[in-house]
Structure formats: C-alpha cells, structure tokens
Amino acid sequence: MARIAAIDMGSNAIRFYVVETGADSPYRVLENVREPIRLGGDVFLKGTIREENIRKAEAAFRRFRQLLKAHGVQTVRAVATCATREASNADLLLSRLERASGIRIEVINGDEEARLIALAVGKKIPLGKKSALIVDLGGGSVEITFVENGRITLADSHNFGALRLLDMLSSAEEDIRSAGQLLGEYMELVARKLSRRGNGKKAALFIATGGNIEAIAAIPEVRAEPHPDYPDTLRLKAGNLRRLMEELSGMSLKSRMERFGLREDRADVILPACFVYHRIAELNGSEEILVPRVSLKDGVVQEILEQAKGSEHLLDIREQVGVSCREMVARYKLDQRHAEKVTELALSIFDQTESVHGLGKQERIYLEAAGLLHDIGYFISMQKHHKHSHYIIANSGIVGLSPAERLIVAGISRYHRKATPGSAHPEYEELPKKDRATVWSLAAILRIADALDKEHNSAVRNVECRLQNGSLLLRAVSRKSCRLEALGVTANAAMFRDHFGLDVKLTIDREE
C-alpha cells in the first residue's frame, strides 16, 4: 500500500490531501484538510502577500509536515496557483514555507492546472468518446479546457476568478445589475476566445469543477441529483442555477450563510461563481451541468499514480504539446503541409543524430513544437517573420509547456533562419546557459529540415543520416531534382557546422 499527499495552495484556501492506494484498487482518502487562508485577497488588491497570511501559511505547512509523518507518506507534491504566480513576494513566501516544513512548492501555470484538472475529471467521466468543456473556477482564475477524443485541444486560463471578481465589486451586496454588467463584459471576452479557439464547436458535455460549484450543488434549491452513468458525479439544470443566482442577488451575506449553511468565505463569492458557470453553460448551449466532485489535488494524485505505474494516461503531456501546436497551426492558418513535413524531417534528423547532440525526449518535444510553429510569424508579417514567431510563441498558451519552455521553443523558431544566436539578442542572452545550448542544437537541426522543404511541396520523402570523416552525410529521397532544397541546405548548414563541428553534405536520390 502506498500513501501519497497533494497540496494545492490556491487563492482562496490551502488544501491538503492524503490518500492510500493499493496495486489495483481505487485510492482511499485518509486526510482532506482545508485551511481558509486567502492569499488572493492580498495579491489581487495590492500585488503582495501580507506578513500575517505568510505566517498563517507557515503554521499550516508545519501541520502538514506533522500529518505527513503521522501517515507515513512516501510521495508528496505541492503546487501553487494564481495568487502565488502573481505575488511580487512569491519567492519569499515559497522559501519560508519550505524552511518551515521541508516541503518544496511548485508554481504551475494555468495550462498545467487545466491539464491536471482534466486528468482528475477523466477518472470519473470518460473523455475518450464525447467532446467536453471543463470549467474550473478558483479564487483568482478560471481554467477552461476543451477535450476532444481524449485530447486537450484548448486550455485557457483567465484572470477573473470568483475572489478577484468579488474584489472588483464595491461589496458582496453589489446591485445585481451593476455586477451583472461587469461580469457580463468579462464573459463576452471569454465568448470571443472560445469561438476563435474552439472553431465554433459546442461540447457535448459541460463539466464544472471546484469548491464553488460543489457548494452550489449542495444547495437544495438547485436540485442536483446523482448522474446515472458516472460515479460520484452530480448533475444539475442550468435553469436552476439561474434561479439561484437571482435569489442570491437579493440576499445579504449573513442571509446567505443562514439560509444555505455556507461558510463566510464561500457565501461572499458564490454569486459571481453562479454567474460565471451559468454564462459559460449558455455560451456552450448546455442545459445540464455535470459536477464530478474533483479538483486540482485529485489531478495531482492521479498523475503521481500514473507515473508510478509507468502508464501513458489518456491526457499524456507529450501528446498535448503536439495537439496544442497543431491547433495553433489551424487557428493561425499556417501552411499545414509544410509545417508537418518540416517537423517530420527535423525529428528524423534528431533521432538519427542522437550521438551528436546528446539530447533526450523533452528536447524532442521542443523541436516538434518549433517545427510546427516556426512560420507562425507570417500571421503578423512576411518580413522578419522569424522574430514575430518568437513573440507569438513566447506569449501563447501551449498545453504541456511551461513559460520557460515556451521561451526555448520560441528561440528555436526564431533562429530557423537569418542570424544565429548571439549577445546582441537579449531574448537569447536571458535564457539559462543550458537552455541556450538547447536552442543552438535544435535550431541548427530545424534550419536543415526547413531547407529540405524549401519549395513547400513536400518533395523530399525522407532523409537518411550518416556520420563519416567529420561530416554529416544526408541522403534525401525525392520525387524531383530538388535544386532549391540542395542550395538551401548548403546555405543553412553553417549553424550546424559551427555548433557540432560537422560539415553537412547532401545527396538527393530521385525516386524511380
């Protein structure tokens, strides 16, 4: 029996979760603790976390350390989300909590948060057959995930969680028309983004997660009922949610607490939460909302279990990067055929030259992403499109890549043509030394692959690589002479030669 712990340091509370699992059985919950420490209440108003709340968090983590020891936990993963991401004194908070407890906290981005939540949902509701829109509303942000055929095709994080919206209103008893107007403006932004990113598609299932929707579903007036097909999952009518929203808008904070048995830190945010969930249900055309009663901490536990088993789970992160990049190829209307061919050739060269570059699976993912997106800068302008590619990639959400990893992919794409990396390029110089070397290696490979499809006609079927006498010999099999491709490889081989000390020589064999 293994014991695993997950800690979710959110905007509205810190949650501690310990489970016990056997070889084949579902896990059993041993501890489920919620510490109502509102880090977001500080950050969203003043940009920093108050000393008082840092001390409360330290005390909570000391208790967590004792519980970990008492339960004999073998594996623990602690993650922090929106409030910590935005706090100007986040480093101070994290270092003090680690000193207090010995627990290292990982700050994750919104895309990773969405992926982990989708992983947790997938254990309750099969995501392999029906399209699903998953919405997780936290205190500081809302994560919106679109899943098709078991793969994430959209993962967006928006900075308007329930607590942040509450802070933007003058009080918890703000007039519903004023609140509705403000929230409505935010939701219209979501509507436009969903329309663009989802290509107008509607999801078959609307799935809501988070403490807010669970509190809403527990209110008798909502009439939530067990779903007949999915275990431990509730369903409720969107129309009932609207009626509750209208009733809540006319009630004081105290009345909400007394009438519905809500904690104060839930009663104040429940109205904006109702509005967000109901509006997104409207946008998706959903009459029914599914509540699987899972959260980020469940996704953290599930991933630990999957990794321990060595399984390639449904929402494997390696698949998600390619899926997300291909969605961007379609959305930005790139030359998909060229993007796929360049990526195919680049990965083939990468695999055949492992003894030269010494890179691994993660770097291969970066090369795949850069190959697919290297021409995305055309969306802005044909001139200097490689620089525009860097900007778009660095500032876009790519499922499965952290912000630091996006900068690596952006750098690889930026150097697929023209100048090589150097001290005159601050975006390159600001990368850690190891990442700079990765950019050099992969950009050198990408340049050659891009040159092999110079005419964007996929004439080169495949490429074979062989090392001989200080040279990399490339044999391309093609259905035409490929003179432009040959010239392109010659013109773009210098970066590979300078970095790896190998001349690049190309021969082209015509198909019979």
Question: What does it look like?
Answer:
- The chain has 512 residues and is of the alpha/beta class.
- It has 3 domains: 2-108, Nucleotidyltransferase, domain 5; 111-298, Nucleotidyltransferase, domain 5 (2-Layer Sandwich); 317-510, Orthogonal Bundle (Hypothetical protein af1432), CATH 1.10.3210.
- The protein has helices at residues 39-46, 51-71, 82-86, 90-101, 110-122, 162-168, 176-197, 211-217, 238-249, 253-260, 264-267, 270-284, 296-309, 317-331, 336-352, 354-357, 361-373, 385-394, 403-414, 426-429, 433-451, 483-492, 494-500; strands at residues 2-9, 14-21, 28-35, 75-80, 105-107, 132-137, 142-148, 151-158, 205-209, 225-226, 234-237, 288-291, 460-468, 471-478, 503-510.
- Strands 3-2-1-4-5 form a 5-stranded mixed β-sheet, sandwiched between helices.
- A hairpin with a 2-residue loop joins strand 7 (142-148) and strand 8.
- The model is unreliable at 170-174 (pLDDT under 50).
Give a quick summary of the entry:
The protein is an alpha/beta fold and 512 residues long. The protein has helices spanning 39-46, 51-71, 82-86, 90-101, 110-122, 162-168, 176-197, 211-217, 238-249, 253-260, 264-267, 270-284, 296-309, 317-331, 336-352, 354-357, 361-373, 385-394, 403-414, 426-429, 433-451, 483-492, 494-500; strands spanning 2-9, 14-21, 28-35, 75-80, 105-107, 132-137, 142-148, 151-158, 205-209, 225-226, 234-237, 288-291, 460-468, 471-478, 503-510.
